[in-house]
Amino acid sequence: MQLSPEVLENYLNRLGVAAGEYSIGAEIDSRVCALPVDEGWSVFYSERGLRTDEVGFENQDVALIYLLGLFTQQQLDRGSLTEATA
User: Element (H or E) spanning 78, and its range?
Assistant: First the structure.
């Protein structure tokens, strides 16, 4: 599955995730960031210049899918989304 930053932003918007909660391609304080690095891509939370919960990925697609999963889980935990019942 390929996922571009534009498509990811659309998904996150539909999930109710504010644009100020994440950053793609730039490290911005107090946001979950997805950045290209020498070895591929890195996803982490940036706070006061520190990177926490940093996870590395070989390519952009996998990093952005991971980021989508993080926010989907967050929205479920907040009660913003409901789980489907069978």
Answer: helix 60-78
Those residues with Cβ within 8 angstroms of residue 60's Cβ, 6 or more apart along the chain or in another chain: 3, 34, 36, 41
pTM of the model: 0.88
CA dihedral 25, 55, 22, 34 (to 10 degrees): 10
Residues 6+ apart with CB under 8 A from 50: none
What contacts 24+ positions apart, CB below 8 Å, involve 80-86?
A: 80/15, 80/16, 81/15
Q: What are phi and psi of 25, to 5 degrees?
A: 95, -5
Instruction: Name 76's Cβ contacts closer than 8 Å, sequence gap at least 6.
Output: 83
What is the band of 80 on the pLDDT scale with cuts at 50, 70, 90?
Answer: confident
